[in-house]
TrEMBL record:
Protein name (database record): Ankyrin repeat-containing domain
Gene3D superfamilies: Ankyrin repeat-containing domain
Record organism: Phytophthora rubi
Coiled coil: none
Top-level taxon of origin: Eukaryota
């Protein structure tokens, strides 16, 4: 079967399918055991890899038939493998057929859920520009254009990069590609867009804030060095950096420049997601009570892993009102966060009402670890 698919022998493929097909099959329901299904799925990918569109057309209905009564994602992985194999080897006819097939059977949107390497990237890295251009312009599918742009820049495919940027701009909004590349830290692609398209102050400022939020110091330094970052743009970028995750290095770099306004610093404190950032600002600035309470309340309602460390730091501030301490205590009990419950249960600001409410919530949510702590009271 695989040899026939490799060589495009449709008549032999048809004969072999008939031989492995179950005896009780009919035109409506094809019966294949698991081994036969795996073989046919492998064969259709091999056929695509070698550009045999007729064999792909012959076998894809069988692949669809395997999963006729199940959700489409059952056959989608095979369809994606077929399309990737064709694109990566430059077989435009097969690519066009598979795109049409996906649209006909209404699973084309699944291709917009990007794999680690999507079909367009396979075409580009394989050097198959005709296929790449079709996917960019003619397929109607939302490929990972940002990643494709990075690859095109790396491969010095300027014409393709420009085409991708044009399509991205039409589908989304203006300079979003510039900002998104900055956020993901793709420095060379950022430099390319700056040199060819995005030299205005607004675009540079927006990308600067995105790079800061992503924690990419090299992109931040490059954009800052252009000389177009206004005071307002710097403040915004500083706030974005503080609200990011694992961005302490960029926060420290920007803070040490002493360009952030006091208002921006207070807003940044309230939005920070890293206790190291909070401590940096608290130790060096006069943070307002309002910013502390906003940060505390926001942390109570958050769901990220570092919230206990932030709670521990902020709960030590006497300006945090008892109502917010109560809310945090009840929330911790409801979530089963024994570490935070243990921290707050000895706080004099926790009311008896909150103690009772937290206990009830822990019972309802069956948070045994919290109940054991509260029984110790």
């Amino acid at each position: 079967m695989l040899q026939a698919a490799t060589n495009g022998y449709t008549d032999i493929v048809e004969l072999l399918v008939e031989r492995i097909e179950g005896d009780d099959s009919d035109d409506e329901t094809l019966q294949f055991d698991d081994a036969a299904q795996s073989l046919i799925q492998e064969a259709v990918v091999v056929a695509a890899e070698h550009g045999h569109c007729a064999v792909v057309q012959q076998l894809m209905p069988l692949v669809m038939g395997f999963h006729r009564l199940t959700y489409l994602s059952s056959y989608y992985p095979t369809a994606r493998s077929v399309l990737d194999a064709a694109a990566g080897n430059g077989h435009l006819e097969v690519v066009k057929f598979m795109v049409q097939h996906a649209q006909q059977y209404r699973y084309a949107q699944q291709f917009s859920i990007w794999a680690s390497v999507d079909t367009l990237e396979h075409a580009l890295t394989g050097g198959h520009l005709e296929v790449a251009n079709f996917l960019i312009d003619g397929s109607g599918i939302f490929w990972n254009l940002k990643r494709a742009f990075v690859v095109a820049v790396e491969m010095e495919l300027a014409t393709v990069a420009e085409r991708i940027a044009d399509v991205f701009t039409r589908r989304f909004h203006g300079d979003n590609l510039f900002a998104e590349l900055a956020h993901s830290g793709d420095l060379e692609a950022v430099k390319y867009l700056y040199n060819t398209r995005c030299k205005d102050e607004r675009s540079v400022g927006k990308a600067f804030a995105s790079a800061a939020n992503g924690g990419h110091a090299d992109v931040v330094e490059f954009l800052l060095g252009i000389g177009l970052i206004s005071s307002e743009a710097f403040d915004k970028a500083f706030e974005h950096a503080c609200s990011g995750f694992e961005t302490t290095g960029v926060v420290t770099y920007l803070y040490n420049m002493k360009r952030a306004s006091l208002k921006a610093i207070n807003r940044a404190f309230a939005a920070a997601n890293d206790v190291a950032v909070l401590k940096l600002l608290d130790e060096n600035e006069n943070i307002s009570d309002e910013s502390v309470t906003v940060a505390f309340e926001r942390n109570t309602n958050s769901r990220f892993n570092g919230k206990h460390e932030i709670l521990e730091f902020l709960a030590s501030k006497p300006c945090v009102p008892s109502e917010l301490i109560d809310e945090a205590f009840v929330a911790a009990a409801t979530e089963g966060n024994a570490e935070s419950v243990n921290l707050l249960r000895g706080d004099s600001r926790v009311s008896d009402t909150a103690m009772g409410e937290a206990f009830v919530h822990a019972v309802v949510a069956n948070k045994q670890n919290v109940l054991e702590l509260m029984y110790e009271e």
